[in-house]
Amino acid sequence: MEKNVKKNNVVRNIAIGVAVGAAVTMLKKSNREKVAQNVRNVKTKVDEIRQNPAPLKARVKETVQAVSENGKGVAALGMVKEKVNELQKLTPIVVETLKETRDIFTEKKRTLREKREITEGIEIKSESVVEENAGMEEARELMLQIPEEETEEIMLEKSAELKNETLVVAQNEAEEKKETKQSV
Description:
mainly alpha, rod-shaped, 5 helices
């Protein structure tokens, strides 16, 4: 109960202070004239709005639409922010994957060079063990990304790799035939 009385006293004292301040301000003639002019302007505006509310309605609709569009923009910004955060998380993974892929290709290239050196001068005659167009789309895409000087070198390396693989398959087939003949 005591708190309510104190709150009421505070509110009452504030109201008294406002009233006294307004009364003191009205003692000056220029202030009275300004207040009277403002009251007349407000009265005129209220009469205009009462007689023709359409412009006010239109302004309110425009404001509501603008707020709505801003809200949509804020939602879109939130989505963009989510995507940026997602990309920031994925970027290190993609970079690591690309590095691993580069390392694999570098190792494969080194291996192919070694195999080419070993198999130089060996002529291989056998049927292809690779399906038609197997991996050619991917190879074509990779080749378009590599400068021309490197392309010829890579093509030679791939050719040598295929020769080596074909040689290994042919040798395996020959060994299997021998084993089959020996078992018979």
